[in-house]
């Protein structure tokens, strides 16, 4: 089966600019996650979707971050405006059931804010 | 608040020997644990899991041990191979909720 697709792989932007990331999960996976991994840290959940509904966005900085999953398939994560501390790898993952048995991660988007 | 901790940032092991990676957690509600392996420029890949109803789970060269009283789990790789060189993350969740990840341990297996 095809894996989780993410684009772009790399992005460099200046602070205060906006940026968007795209994720296409594994076909049939109802649950989609966006994680932020800052260098030297473990992945941190930003938002979890079940189909096209939000299950958990408690750690999403909603003043600057937004995410949507229209039609319950692919998803976009947006940052506007970006800050230096947003520099990280943004990982998308999907699973066929909520949480357990592990997720399948995409390769991530490495964002550098300068 | 780091609920899952991996206190060893790095580990080096000779090929053929045992690699032991450790993970501690603080939340007693955690009941499911995963280990992920991550190569550079790739996303983490699922390696092995364990439920809190067990204290050991084995899959080929990989074994995970869970000590609930100590809130500690470990991943044993026997024998270690150069291809095992990667960053290993442990993750924990309480049923139905999100997984919390540790900061990772970089394993280097020396040929």
Description:
The complex is a heterodimer of chains A (114) and B (111). With 114 residues, chain A is mostly beta strands. Chain A is built from no helices and eleven strands. Chain A has strands spanning 5-7, 10-13, 19-24, 31-37, 44-50, 53-56, 65-68, 75-79, 88-95, 104-105, 109-113. In chain A, strands 2, 4, 5, 6, 9, 10 and 11 form a seven-stranded mixed beta sheet that branches. Chain A has a four-stranded antiparallel beta sheet with strand order 1-3-8-7, with no helix packed on it. In chain A, a hairpin with a 6-residue loop joins β4 and β5. Chain B is an all-beta fold and 111 residues long. Helix content of chain B is 0%, strand content 54%. Chain B has no helices and eleven strands. In chain B, the strands form two sheets. In chain B, strands 2, 4, 5, 9, 10 and 11 form a six-stranded mixed beta sheet that branches. Chain B has a five-stranded antiparallel beta sheet with strand order 1-3-8-7-6, with no helix packed on it. Chain B is globular, with a radius of gyration of 13 Å. The mean pLDDT of chain B is 94. Chains A and B meet through β5 and β10 of A and β4, β5, β9 and β10 of B.
Please outline the helices and strands.
The complex is a heterodimer of chains A (114) and B (111).
Chain A: E1 5-7, E2 10-13, E3 19-24, E4 31-37, E5 44-50, E6 53-56, E7 65-68, E8 75-79, E9 88-95, E10 104-105, E11 109-113
Chain B: E1 4-5, E2 10-14, E3 19-25, E4 32-38, E5 45-51, E6 56-59, E7 62-67, E8 72-77, E9 86-93, E10 100-101, E11 105-110
